[in-house]
Design a protein that fits this description.
alpha+beta, 5-stranded mixed β-sheet, globular, 4-stranded antiparallel β-sheet, FHA domain-containing protein
Amino acid sequence: DGDTPLRIGRFIDGQVIDKLVFNSGVISVAHAELWSDNGKINIKDTKSSNGTFVNHIRLSPAGSESIPHQLKDGDIVQLGVDHQDGKQKIHKYVKFTIEMGRESQAATNDFNSSSHPSSSSDLTAYFDTSASAHSTSNYDEEENKRGEDMQDEDKLRPRGD
């Protein structure tokens, strides 16, 4: 049998954290599980409301547990779908890419080291662990772009006078 699953879900204040959590309203409290079995990585949706997707394909209907799905190098996993709460808050999905069987990079690429003033190959001083623990993508950049797009759409929409 496989390893103990890594449970994935939504962050709740005051909860003991024994799983990978995200602070997003489209992630269910118990959303999905990841585990390895005989060297293969698997994922399944655990009855989430807004879905678990692999390469844009939903694993199961809302509220239904999916069968295990084997992940491969390059697969894109998405948890939930964007949802706008009226005109107030936009709840964002979480998306990440699976990388397996790749050699780790021993040194910094020239374009990375030349873009940073220190040109140091030791990047540990530049990681903000609190931020990196909460961010798996260019989430803020995408959110800002979506906000700009929505403002542009509002400007183009005809107004009733």
